[in-house]
Amino acid sequence: DAMVIQNPRYQVTQFGKPVTLSCSQTLNHNVMYWYQQKSSQAPKLLFHYYDKDFNNEADTPDNFQSRRPNTSFCFLDIRSPGLGDAAMYLCATSRGRVSNQPQHFGDGTRLSIL
Amino acid sequence: GQQVMQIPQYQHVQEGEDFTTYCNSSTTLSNIQWYKQRPGGHPVFLIQLVKSGEVKKQKRLTFQFGEAKKNSSLHITATQTTDVGTYFCVSYSSASKIIFGSGTRLSIRP
Fold first, then answer.
1. Which of A84, B14, B34, B42 has the most CB atoms around its CB within 10 Å?
2. CB distance B9 to B105 below 8 Å
3. What is the pLDDT of residues A55-92, one digit of tens each?
4. Rounded-to-integer distance, Cα B33 and Cα A86, Å
5. A112 near A9, Cβ under 8 Å?
6. Given CB atoms, is A45 within the 8 Å cutoff of chain B?
7. Could you tell me where the beta strands, DSSP code E, fall in chain A?
8. B98 vs A: CB within 8 A
9. How far, CA to CA in Å, does A62 sit from each of A48, A53, A57, A65?
């Protein structure tokens, strides 16, 4: 089945140690998103790619970076994780323009910081 | 900037009772989407509303978009335990910025 796959499901890293989360999709969608979701909160958009065009949200910390080497893959890099970065990270995709297409979410990666 | 308020934050109902969540915007929306997130799961797209006054139904779920396209509601008739989860409305600003409502968490007493 076509889907959005996130690996790993759970990631533990040390305070300040760089970590990379990955997302792949078989839907061939133009747009890929990264969200951060903390407990009992709505997902917070960090950034998205429309094809190769990177769109950063104004309040996304510089500590968060992203790469999209091809249509299928997108990575979230956290350069120096702090305790406040512990959260669920959700990847999503959509076809076409951002505003009028449904988003398809992966199962997420839960990040813990020691 | 554009804001979307979603109420209530929590709703605890007896199985079989109805449930409604509301989203209200300070500005006119081009469209609105609704998602459901089960506990421990990821958001799943339910529906998109585009037209003024639009009403769509999915079995026991009824979605409405206000005449002024500033508010929307999701109504569940005769809730079942499978309806448990958090329901989010998602709208888009004129600059195509994604705006998630704060969500309504539905819990159900069997």
1. B34
2. yes
3. 999 899 999 999 999 999 999 999 999 999 999 999 99
4. 28
5. no
6. yes
7. 4-7, 10-13, 19-25, 31-37, 44-50, 53-56, 64-67, 73-78, 87-94, 104-105, 109-113
8. yes
9. 15, 18, 11, 7
Verify whether the Cβ–Cβ distance B92 to A107 is below 8 Å: no
Q: Which of A3, A56, A99 has the highest number of chain B CBs within 10 A, making it the mutation to test binding with B?
A: A99
Mean pLDDT confidence for B68-87: 97
Closest CA to A51 of A34, A66, A29, A27: A29
Close Cβ partners of B110 (under 8 Å, ≥ 6 residues apart): B15, B81
Phi, psi of B103 (to 5 degrees): 95, 150
Residue B1: the pLDDT is: 64
Are residues A45 and B41, on separate chains, in Cβ contact within 8 Å? no
Name the DSSP class of B85: E
| Residue B88 contacts A, CB cutoff 8 Å | yes
Give the one of B33, B42, B48 whose C-beta lies nearest to A105's C-beta.
B42
- Tell me which residue in B41, B88, B98 faces A98 most closely, judged by beta carbons: B98
> Mean of the pLDDT values across residues A19-36?
96
Dig out the tokens for B17 from the structure: 């009772």
**Separation of alpha carbons A3 and B48, rounded Å:** 20
Q: Collect all residues of chain B within an 8 Å Cβ-Cβ radius of residue A92.
A: 43
CA dihedral of residues B27, B33, B37, B41 (deg, nearest 10) = -120
